[in-house]
Design a protein that fits this description.
Keywords: Membrane, Photosynthesis, Plastid, Repeat, Thylakoid, TPR repeat. This protein is mainly alpha-helical. Helix content is 75%, strand content 0%.
Amino acid sequence: MPRPQKNDNFIDKTFTVIADIILKILPTSKEEKQAFYYYRDGMSAQSEGEYAEALENYYEALILEEDPYDRSYILYNIGLIYSSNGEHTKALEYYHQALELNSKLPQALNNIAVIYHYQGLKAANQQKSNASKTMFDKAAEYWKQAIYLAPNNYIEAQNWLKTTGRLNNISK
């Protein structure tokens, strides 16, 4: 059953109507259609800050969705929720699972880098210089991969890489 839309703006309503029409005319299985409905409801709940409801929908979508590319976005969104809730270890697990299915997901690479950078800052504040350097180096590697895939994105990360001397050769 579709989730009631609390957001009444024209674009959201239009997207929902168009998506429903496309789902009805596309030759997809019942499971694929149901997976999409769960995914869409998960995104809606997530955008409203209803993270528990979003996770329920995403987990249901994962059960039904077979396409690796589509699964990667579900896993990525689950990672976003765990990251938003400060559960960085779980977020990293889901981001890595997403990347296993779709290695061209720069936003997952960026979010992994952000977590490592945050952990590097925490370690630096605790005077743990070796741990800090390790976390910053990990952040740099993931940001380089993200920038390689999306060279016009992540300008702050590019600046950080330059100012810390970590910008050498951006590649896979």
